[in-house]
Amino acid sequence: MRVIVIGGGPAGMAAAVSAKEQGVKEVVLLERRSYLGGVLPQCIHTGFGTQLYGEDHTGGEYAWMWKEKTEAAGVSVFLGTTVLSIEKQGARDGQNHGEPRPAAADARKRQENMAPQRPHGEANSGEPQQRQGSGAAYSESSQSREGWQAQQDKTAWQVRCVSAAEGARVLEADAVILATGCRERTLPQMLIPGSRPAGVFTAGAAQLMMNMKNYLPGKSAVILGSGDIGLIMARRMTLEGIRVKMILGQESTGLARNIVQCVEDFEIPMRYGWTVVSTHGHARLKGVSIAPMEGGKREYVPCDTLLVATGLIPELEVCRGYEPGEDGLFVCGNANVVHDLVDHVTEEALEVGKMAAAYLAASGGGGQMSRSSCESRSTLPKQAVGKQGNMLCTVCPKGCVMQVETMPFSVSGNECERGESFARQELTNPKRVLTAVVKTDSSQVPLLSVRTDRAIDKSKLFSTMKAVKKIAVSGPIRPGQIVARDIAGTGANLVATWSVDHGLERK
């Protein structure tokens, strides 16, 4: 029995490891990037793993941890491999392994013609859709004719993929797990009028530019979207010297720690209930017009950069014509439902990996999974909302809303004793962990993400950033390795959170 996992982000790695630990003989993971981790390596901020593991990792550190788990579990990983389609198979006619049957291709075409069509990139509604799925397995081309013949009646899926190293291939599977994540909603999909000059980016694209490619998107910016990625990029751009003029959003949807550490710490203006109604500029963005969502007077804001952080669309086009939840097709992670925390993604994926293994053990590749069996089952606590107080605790993503009094000192609303310690620290000398990037001598990894190994005085963030920008490193470097000691006299060491020339990229 074999399972194919499509997508090498946190969901894909967790599902693959889970299926392997449940006794699935062969688990294959296909990832289109040249490295594992999905978007996590470009997420240089902390906040990953705090609830599931009790440790505060950056995105790169969390990805590296699961990369090592994936390798240790014996999962077969194919990097630089793009999946084009998946196809459910019926009874075989004895053809050569790896060659698609014309009848199957015709069936797939009929299913595509019957599938409801919508414009490219447009979701069924304005929000991400919750989906679920089932599984697949990979048959090696070197498999004997006898072994292949014995497997014919059990194989449920064909996975069509392509890579520069191997060319086009068709991989056979008993179950498939889709962990394909999401893509960002773009400005044209929001139907905002105006010109389309340079300087308009999705927040994720700007994050990739700044944290991995060594490019700054502009000098002054407006951010549309008050979710976590918009808030995180506001802080990141501010620390790099870009002036963030304001954040616009329908409501406060970010985690408490991001509202405090990314917005309030830097006094970035936020306007709830406002949106961008037009863009201006020819070759380069000159400014945007903004207005209240319920109608009102427009305002013009000069800027050369607009970041769009207005939602995610699940990447499920690969399973067009098939409903996740049928005959061994599973979905997990953000492709199933968009999660606030990677902890929730991992927890769900671990459960889906177990379900795929149980499905194969029970049915031998046949049968059907109920749709409800793949619903998100996160048991981790969500952010507290709807409470009144004057301080948000950012020790963990739960975000307790506390009422803090100074004369005499008292704290209420915190769910653990760490809340009182946090409140005392915030009142006397607030501290923050600094995350940033340094230059490298590698053409493949021009920037290395780093962090301080302890929190430093909030008042020293910008002076420490100046010292960080002067650092250049040479590989090989692994996560956790010290890059600079006592950075800027803070007493904190600067440590790597990603890797340079150390097996991250499959050549």
Task: Report on the architecture of this protein.
This protein has 507 residues and is α/β, with parallel strands linked by helices. It contains ten helices and 30 strands. The strands form nine sheets. A five-stranded parallel sheet has the order 5-2-1-9-20, covered by helices on one side. It has a five-stranded parallel sheet with strand order 11-18-12-13-14. The longest helix is centred in the last third of the chain and has 22 residues. The chain is globular. The C terminus is likely disordered.
Whole-number mean pLDDT: 82
Uncertain stretches: 91-153, 365-388, 502-507
Strand content: 25-35%
SS-based structural class?
alpha/beta
Helix residue percentage? 10-25%
What value does the Rg take, in angstroms? 24 Å
Short description:
The chain has helices at 10-21, 59-73, 102-114, 145-151, 203-213, 228-239, 256-263, 342-363, 418-428, 461-468; strands at 2-6, 26-30, 46-48, 57-58, 76-78, 81-88, 157-163, 167-173, 175-178, 182-184, 200-202, 220-224, 243-249, 270-272, 274-281, 285-292, 299-302, 305-308, 312-314, 329-331, 391-392, 401-406, 409-412, 431-432, 435-440, 447-452, 456-457, 472-473, 482-484, 494-496. It is α/β, with parallel strands linked by helices and 507 residues long.
Helix and strand topology:
Elements: E1 2-6, H1 10-21, E2 26-30, E3 46-48, E4 57-58, H2 59-73, E5 76-78, E6 81-88, H3 102-114, H4 145-151, E7 157-163, E8 167-173, E9 175-178, E10 182-184, E11 200-202, H5 203-213, E12 220-224, H6 228-239, E13 243-249, H7 256-263, E14 270-272, E15 274-281, E16 285-292, E17 299-302, E18 305-308, E19 312-314, E20 329-331, H8 342-363, E21 391-392, E22 401-406, E23 409-412, H9 418-428, E24 431-432, E25 435-440, E26 447-452, E27 456-457, H10 461-468, E28 472-473, E29 482-484, E30 494-496
Parallel strand pairs: 1-2, 1-9, 2-5, 9-20, 11-18, 12-13, 12-18, 13-14, 25-28
Antiparallel strand pairs: 3-4, 6-7, 7-8, 10-19, 15-16, 16-17, 21-22, 22-23, 24-27, 25-26, 26-30, 29-30
Helix pairs in contact: 1-2, 1-8, 5-6, 6-7
